Amino acid sequence: MKNDRQPPRRPGSGDEPVRLQKLLAEAGLGSRRQIEGWISEGRVRVNGQLAKLGDQATRADRIRVDGRDVTLKPKRDSETQIIVYHKPEGELVTRRDPEERPTVFRRLPRPKQGRWIAVGRLDINTSGLILFTTDGELANRLMHPSREIEREYSVRILGEVAPETLERLMAGIELDDGPAKFERITEQGGTGANHWYNVVLREGRNREVRRLWEAAGCTVSRLIRIRYGNVELGRRLFPGNWRPLTDEERAELMALAGLRVLERPRPRRSAPGAVKPWRSKPDGGSTSGEGSKWGRRPR
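The line above is the sequence of Pseudouridine synthase; the predicted structure tokens follow.
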């Protein structure tokens, strides 16, 4: 029999009740999917009662995770932190590794509140851009397939790739977890046996870029994520370093996540050598103040 019990409400809140996982994600405890796992495992209580999936709560309720009280402050957009990190090869996107291999979190700054949540993952052999935020709701929206947010990668392929193979990769290939395809493929040149391509897709399944090329009979010798949504890696952010998003990047990213209507800031005079953020063009391409999206190709 289905249990429709809701934890008792505490008085004194003017907030409308929302799903428990959404409330905790907005507080920066984790992504909604991660918190749903905690609820299923019986790790969350609301006002003394064991929480279940589907329960709602407000910021006035007493919420405990693993026996510890969770402080839910009134949410302000200015409190949400977002940074971009250039992950080098050899690092894991995890907080703890049983083999004690290096992880991305050891290089990140301490957040003002909450904790860093990775927007997607990159495998140990893939380098490039990863976004981190303290807002679990934002992270969930940026990763959710329904948003169809573009991810762009620079890929080095060993050997020649026939035009028919590129057409197949754009038409779609059946993988173990369903069909997949690239939205765009742009040849970037190369020397000797190596050839570079920029590829764009609108989802983030596990090792999807590598698996697509391998399914087409190609060998990936290097893979770098160079863009997520409107945020570009650029040439000035070196591996192992991070930077905060600019106000304009932040506003556009929040709009992509559907969290606010995009308001264009007033034009500002760019500093000499400053990089202009990515912009969509009517033909689906992109432009940048650097002249090319990636600039100098990695060796």
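Note on the example: The first strand starts at residue 18 and ends at 19. Residues 247-256 form the longest helix (10 residues).
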